[in-house]
């Protein structure tokens, strides 16, 4: 087990450990440090995020209380979805049906069954309805970031401001 010194006078010691006890998730996207608080004795302190590259750590407080933390390094929360959508490319007139399997405020991942040749950095026009009560319609252009078999990950390039805020609400009210 690798020990990580977290401060000159470490209040918390973090070890890599997949055995999860009293897990809390900490959003650390773009952050250099994160605040921790021991729920047992109330001690709080900072830990240096760049020194802790893994996802799960077990933390031991100076009071010997153990708890687990999970670092969420994603900028946006993602939601597993099963939304029918369509996409088209600049060079084709047809709309192709796809299945959006996860969605965030920054992009989405879909599964396709067509045989079109798609490449990283291609731009697609994507349209779908959310599964909220209003069934809001979202339309955007998106840049392909990654392709793995029939899974395609895209990042939004251009989205109407109103649709952007609808998506924000969608994630704000799970
Ligand atoms: Zn403590």
Q: Any descriptors?
A:
174 residues, mainly beta, 2 domains, six-stranded antiparallel β-barrel, five-stranded mixed beta sheet
Overview of this protein structure:
The chain is mostly beta strands. It has 2 domains: 3-72, no CATH class; 79-172, Thrombin, subunit H, CATH 2.40.10. The chain has one helix at 161-172; strands at 3-4, 12-16, 24-27, 33-37, 44-48, 56-61, 66-72, 79-89, 96-103, 107-112, 123-129, 137-148, 151-159. A 6-stranded antiparallel barrel has the order 8-9-10-13-12-11. It has a 5-stranded mixed sheet with strand order 1-2-6-7-3, with no helix packed on it. A hairpin with a 6-residue loop joins strand 8 (79-89) and strand 9 (96-103). The radius of gyration is 21 Å and the shape is elongated. Zinc ion (ZN) binds at residues 38, 40-41, 43, 61, 63, 65.
Structural class: mainly beta
**What is CATH's topology name of the largest domain?**
Thrombin, subunit H
- Between the first and last Cα atoms, what is the distance in angstroms? 37 Å
CATH architecture of the largest domain: Beta Barrel
Which hetero compounds are present in the coordinates?
A: zinc ion
Task: Give the name of the CATH superfamily of the largest domain.
Answer: predicted glycosyltransferase like domains
Strand and helix order = EEEEEEEEEEEEEH
Low-confidence stretches: 5-9
Just give the CATH class of the largest domain.
Mainly Beta
What percent of the residues sit in helical stretches (DSSP H or I)?
Answer: under 10%
Percent range for β-strand residues: over 45%
Global Rg: 21 Å
Q: Mean pLDDT score, rounded?
A: 86
Number of helices: 1
Order of strands, main sheet, comes to 8-9-10-13-12-11
Largest sheet: 6 strands, antiparallel, barrel
Number of domains: 2
The counted number of beta strands is: 13
Q: In one word, what is the shape? A: elongated
């Amino acid at each position: 087990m690798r020990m990580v010194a977290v401060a000159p006078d470490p209040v918390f010691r973090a070890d890599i450990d997949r055995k999860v006890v009293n897990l809390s998730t900490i959003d650390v996207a773009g952050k250099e440090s994160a605040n921790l608080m021991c729920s047992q004795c109330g001690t709080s302190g900072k830990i240096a995020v760049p020194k802790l590259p893994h996802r799960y750590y077990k933390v031991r407080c100076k009071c010997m209380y153990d708890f687990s933390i999970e670092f969420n390094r994603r900028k946006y929360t993602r939601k597993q979805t099963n939304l029918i959508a369509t996409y088209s490319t600049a060079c084709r007139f047809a709309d192709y049906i796809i299945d959006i399997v996860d969605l965030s405020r920054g992009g989405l991942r879909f599964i396709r069954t067509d045989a079109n040749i798609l490449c990283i950095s291609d731009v697609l026009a994507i349209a779908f309805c959310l599964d909220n009560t209003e069934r809001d319609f979202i339309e955007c252009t998106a840049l392909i970031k990654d392709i793995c078999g029939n899974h395609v990950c895209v990042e939004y390039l251009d989205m109407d401001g109103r649709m952007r805020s609808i998506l924000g609400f969608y994630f704000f009210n799970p």
